[in-house]
Task: inverse folding
């Protein structure tokens, strides 16, 4: 069995046929990864950091091939793909910097204390340990930064966990190049190439084989709520349930005040439309719901006028394009909903960016209007500004929530509610464009995320580790990070 | 509807009839807690610490009443109950000390950086925020330290989350005294008593009402694997799934080497039996599987001889006593299993401590021998010492795993496997007696725990918080802990 990549720009095939992995092959890859997992888990921080930097270098060395392949497989522009390659290597380097300090081990040493209350305490030392072999499901919309060696895999490898990654079938050749790069870095570092494997295929059973395998200890996933629920159900039915770190759909509501429109309506109209259409609207942080005050006809005209000048690249796959087309066609039939359109893209998986405008009660009663639609669309909702707080309280969980306002606005209550709904709240900026940094929180509340963790930023590493306490062991027997001599020079918190 | 507590010492009723809460009452308590939750969430670290210390003092002020009630309701000795009261108040004070520093907020401030790679980064500040209203299910075996205001509730309140706690029906009067104490501390602190509520009853539906209520944001539970699975299933079927922090059964395997027996056989035999019988064998960290090398007949005789001198207090409830009796009777029928007994306790829910001895293959093929049996029993398994590593690899997940050895033993491989199975590994000590301290990890691997978190020690607080990032907000609008001026003087990590 094979399958072939498709170019979104003209729907033609790209590259050689790709071998589709069988169940036996998937299980063999997991098995081999498990046999080698201890070698990765036991690396010193210095060697672990060196490996992560080798991976970054190996990916960088494939820049030209990656740009050629990823541009063809995604139809994303070269600048975007180049930026993603950089982000991918930066992610590995950030984890290298973290791992080198040993801070991610969160070492705590409680020395024995005969006078401790409520009872004498023994010598107790805790560190984080990697989980073992984890399954990563690559996203279609970040062919590098969230693909087989994207943020999920980088954080897993940095934790010391071996990775079996499911390549997204919309960019299989790009994934194969990355696989080669990571494996070459493992070899250079004196480690087995079995520690990182990718699985290719279009068969949905692959998801079940991977997530259901008893040797898999955690799942990292970025994608739709529907597939996220499937993964959670697989986990719940396992003999040993495992954590499923799913970051799923989000509407990323934006609340715009009258004062903000009064101050900078044109900049706002452009910024909102550009953010919604960025990457052809294929970002999980796309603003999918934009609340504006009633009676802002002029502002709507500015949105409409700016949109009309725009055109976007084709969507990532035929299935995304056809789901988008069907959703737009269905929403266009809804009564009391105004429609703004941009220029059509006719070739390949091209579509027409479309913005819907309606009021809150229509939005609530119109099927599909308050759901995420992947692609260049958003919904502008007009409402009384005094109702923003109430409306915010009625929203589901989100990855992000944004307020566009003026310094003169009073929005404490709105902000407090949005901070309960989302993982990241934003002031006078746009939710797309996610900084890969320590203070970043990408995961939000259900249905946007299945846990309270983050897949972006360095805290992503903690998803693949768990704390273990060592009680009363002799120094020589303790893991290096827990020893008083601290041979790895890791950060230790000593009580 | 009412129910009445029962004294395990003679099966007689204790105290007045207790009102059994209806569904409407449970939902009203959740509702009221939710209405007030923001007041707790927004307390300054200083006020939050003061509240936790008020609660500790209020519980301490009820010491005499608690001892009278808890001793009657559990038949545990006064010394144990007194120690538990102290542990309960110490837990609140430890959280007060933590909260005061603000360290639990895990504040990270990434200042805006136009030169940041791969892209300029905005001002991004992250802190932990409380989840809201959480449901705590009290354990039967710790009538204070893991009951309605035990470690779970203390960590939840410290996080800033409101608590609705299900009282265990085996010590309802003790729970009612604690409820009064916590509510009086809330009042003294100028807060609503609705922030802490307890629910009483024997109806198993209460579990569903609580864990299934959409306003409940997390569940803390200590108890059996069966009930843990029910709670996980309730969560998975909710419209919005929530984290279920369940710490469940564990066999807490102990591996004893020939060298250890050679050095200190009598001390070991006594220590193991005493640990298995401590608290009438009703600890989740009870050593339930003890592996000793073949041909240690003398050591088995020492175990048998020490056991024969002992007697334990009655079990906590008639259901625990009858499950224990049925399990012991059934295991006693198994072929190739040797039985050692202690003195019987005839009154009330009294039972006879019983130790089973068999080999590993018999243990594996005998139904029920490798399951947790709550009460004064354990299983001693004889095996070739060279097979310890292989056997350890075949064990399920555990809370703890222990090695009793000599400095001359080489056990690196065994330790490495046990550290993959358990949350706490122990050298030459006993798993019972859990230190309430920062380096403690109580939770282990499934089926001992549902997540990688801990319910004991100060890290328990992180179960009830989640990170939220604030992007580009003006200083005045930011939560106090994220402001440059740092009015709460919390620990801030600034990049």
Result:
């Amino acid at each position: 069995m094979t399958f072939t990549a498709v170019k979104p720009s003209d729907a033609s095939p790209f590259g050689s046929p790709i071998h589709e992995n069988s169940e036996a092959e998937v299980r063999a890859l997991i098995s081999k990864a498990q046999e080698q997992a201890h070698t990765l888990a036991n690396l010193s921080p210095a060697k672990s950091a060196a490996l992560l930097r080798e991976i970054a270098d190996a990916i960088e060395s494939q820049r030209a091939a990656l740009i050629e392949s990823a541009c063809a497989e995604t139809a994303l522009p070269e600048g975007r793909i180049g930026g993603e390659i950089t982000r991918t290597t930066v992610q590995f380097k950030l984890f290298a910097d973290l791992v080198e300090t040993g801070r991610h081990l969160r070492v705590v040493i409680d020395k024995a204390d005969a006078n401790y209350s409520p009872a004498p305490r023994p010598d107790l030392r805790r560190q984080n340990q990697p989980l073992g072999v984890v399954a990563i499901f690559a996203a279609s919309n970040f062919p590098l930064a969230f693909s087989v060696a994207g943020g999920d895999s980088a954080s897993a490898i940095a934790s010391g966990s071996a990775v079996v990654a499911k390549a997204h079938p919309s960019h299989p050749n790009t994934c194969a190049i990355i696989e080669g790069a990571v494996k070459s870095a493992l070899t250079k570092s004196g480690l087995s190439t079995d520690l990182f494997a990718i699985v290719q295929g279009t068969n949905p059973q692959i998801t079940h084989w991977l997530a259901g395998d008893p040797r898999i200890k955690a799942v990292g996933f970025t994608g739709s709520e529907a597939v996220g629920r499937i993964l959670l159900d697989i986990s719940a039915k396992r003999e040993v349930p495992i954590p499923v770190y799913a970051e799923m759909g989000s509407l990323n509501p934006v609340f715009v005040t009258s004062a903000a429109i009064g101050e900078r309506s044109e900049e706002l109209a452009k910024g909102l439309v550009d953010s919604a259409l960025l990457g052809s609207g294929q970002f999980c942080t796309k603003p999918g719901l934009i609340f504006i005050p009633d009676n802002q006809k002029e502002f709507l005209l500015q949105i409409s006028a700016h949109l009309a000048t725009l055109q976007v690249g084709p969507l990532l796959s035929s299935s995304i394009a056809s789901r988008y087309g069907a959703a737009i066609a269905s929403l266009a039939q809804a009564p009391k909903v105004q429609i703004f359109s941009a220029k059509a893209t006719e070739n390949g998986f091209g579509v027409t960016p479309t913005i819907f405008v309606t009021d809150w009660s229509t939005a609530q009663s119109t099927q599909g209007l308050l759901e995420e639609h992947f692609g260049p669309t958003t919904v502008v909702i007009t409402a009384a500004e005094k109702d923003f707080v109430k409306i915010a309280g009625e929203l589901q969980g989100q990855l992000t929530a944004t307020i566009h306002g003026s310094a003169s606005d009073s929005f404490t209550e709105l902000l407090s509610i949005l901070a309960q709904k989302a993982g990241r709240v934003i002031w006078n900026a746009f939710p797309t464009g996610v900084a890969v940094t320590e203070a970043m929180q990408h995961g939000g509340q259900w249905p946007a995320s299945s846990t309270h963790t983050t897949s972006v930023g360095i805290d992503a590493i903690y998803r693949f580790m768990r704390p273990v306490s060592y009680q009363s062991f002799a120094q020589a027997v303790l893991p290096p990070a827990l020893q008083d001599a601290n041979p790895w020079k890791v950060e230790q918190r000593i009580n």
Observations:
- The longest strand of chain B covers residues 13-19.
